[in-house]
Write a structure and sequence with these properties.
- With 224 residues, the chain is of the alpha+beta class.
- The chain has two domains: 40 residues; 167 residues, no CATH class.
- The protein contains two helices and 13 strands, in the order αβββββββββββββα.
- The strands form two sheets. Strands 1-2-5-13-7-11-10 form a seven-stranded antiparallel β-sheet, with no helix packed on it.
- Strand 10 and strand 11 form a beta hairpin.
- The relative contact order is 0.16.
């Protein structure tokens, strides 16, 4: 084979290998990005507040709004774990009060939650925490608008009864309903802080009918 032909052939092989390496690199970067997103979760920063699902149990798909009563933050979520999940949020210090209550920081929220877990729900409880895993109390300044009637009574679609507990912990129970697998619950409430917090948390726990919990447990035991 002439030297010119040999060099031309080697050049073609080299270019083909370069293209393969480039494709492999792109695939690796894409896979890393997808994996990173899965592990770290989704985070949305909007109008001074950052919401994240990085603690797991649910998927935060979209956030809109500005936090006022006329234009509340609307959080679109998929609850994948029947035991619930925890939403973390950070509020910028200069965010202010968007609902007109007496608190230093306050905003209105609508949560639209799809039940993609393996059980239907008959209730849904929200609990505020200024420290992860520790229920909020009177002294941390975090509450569901405690001491104000702005936004109250809280309402929901999918549940007929709403019970707000301001003391000793900050909880809201949406009760007397049924959200089937694939169904949606819409919850309306407000969150406030009397002093800025670096980060706060909203524990979200759906309640399951006792009979369905027993059936699921029996099925799990039968598979073992």
């Amino acid at each position: 084979m002439a030297d010119g032909s040999r060099w031309a052939q080697q050049a073609r092989v080299w270019r083909a290998r370069q293209r393969q390496a480039a494709i492999a690199c792109v695939v690796a970067v894409f896979f890393h990005a997808v994996t990173l997103g899965t592990v770290e979760g989704a985070s949305f920063s909007l109008n001074g507040v950052t919401f994240s699902d990085h603690l797991g149990g649910f998927v935060l798909e979209k956030v809109t709004g500005e936090g006022s009563m006329d234009d509340p933050f609307v959080l679109i979520e998929r609850m994948t774990d029947s035991n619930g999940g925890t939403l973390s949020f950070r509020v910028r210090r200069d965010f202010g009060n968007r609902i007109g209550s007496h608190h230093a920081i306050a905003f209105a929220v609508i949560k639209i939650v799809e039940n993609t877990s393996d059980l239907a729900w008959n209730s849904f409880e929200l609990e505020l925490q200024s420290k992860l895993g520790v229920p909020s109390d009177y002294y941390d300044g975090l509450s569901f608008g405690q001491g104000s009637q702005v936004g109250r009574p809280f309402t929901a679609e999918g549940f007929d009864q709403v019970k707000v507990m301001d003391e000793p912990y900050d909880r809201v129970l949406f009760d007397h309903g049924r959200i089937p697998i694939g169904g949606h619950a819409t919850l309306r409430f407000v969150i406030s802080e009397t002093m800025p917090l670096n980060e706060a948390y909203l524990l979200q726990q759906p309640g399951k009918p006792v009979a369905e919990e027993r059936i699921t447990s029996d099925r799990s035991l039968a598979r073992k």
